[in-house]
């Protein structure tokens, strides 16, 4: 049977690149994103490019319990099974803790952490019944280390960093593997908003003198979803181009 992957945040950046990666490998892709106009047009384009597979787009706010329940009902009515769930949708808010409103704090936590709770709850019983499944969360290097002006984002991604271990422990007995991909700065539309001099500094902070491309994350996701990764679960796997490995000692 053709494998089916559900990807949140699929209309942009890494989610979009993962959509293309899994379609190129012959899988069906369920794209879920808040951005309906972008998502629908991308899904239509991919459906033309990959006529032998299913590409569906669903407009959803992954932080809304009712929207996620609705998504699960529609997706499971059509596909009945889900092989891989990728929780990629995420948002960022700039600011030290005291500069953030409670509303902003709650919003970042809702989209970056609670959405993983909601999406997993909505699809885990299907995976348990299948006795197989793969869940991949997109965390961040900002959840492993401290970062300036990223209090809410670091807290949210830090939670994801440890959540993966609980998920892997609880679902391993059902043959469900759960891993995080931990990207460093990645060349997505979000990142491209930085001025060129800032982008140059990011490049210089990598021993490879480059930042991560969305396709690098997509290749890791494809590997983690595959049988090749059948012994890998509960891990935070960095895809960073070496960003963040330096102890800080001068050269
Ligand atoms: P992006 O902004 O290009 O794409 C994110 C997508 O998520 C967008 O299409 C957006 O519409 C969607 N989205 C946002 N809120 C949503 C919601 N409530 N419901 C449904 N969809 C929603 O971002 P990206 O750079 O591709 O980031 C993808 C993931 O990678 C995020 O979790 C982000 O935190 C993480 N990340 C990004 C970087 C980076 O440098 N770009 C680094 C580390 C981790």
From TrEMBL:
PROSITE patterns the record matches: ADH_SHORT
MF-aspect GO terms: oxidoreductase activity
SUPFAM superfamilies for this protein: NAD(P)-binding Rossmann-fold domains
InterPro entries hit by this protein: NAD(P)-bd_dom_sf (IPR036291), Sc_DH/Rdtase_CS (IPR020904), SDR_DHRS6-like (IPR051122), SDR_fam (IPR002347)
CDD domains, sorted: SDR_c
UniProt keywords, alphabetically: Oxidoreductase
Domain of life, per lineage: Bacteria
Gene3D superfamilies: NAD(P)-binding Rossmann-like Domain
GO biological process: bile acid metabolic process
One Pfam family, short name: adh_short_C2
PANTHER family documented for this protein: DIHYDROANTICAPSIN 7-DEHYDROGENASE
UniProt record similarity statement: Belongs to the short-chain dehydrogenases/reductases (SDR) family.
Protein's recorded name: 3-oxoacyl-[acyl-carrier-protein] reductase
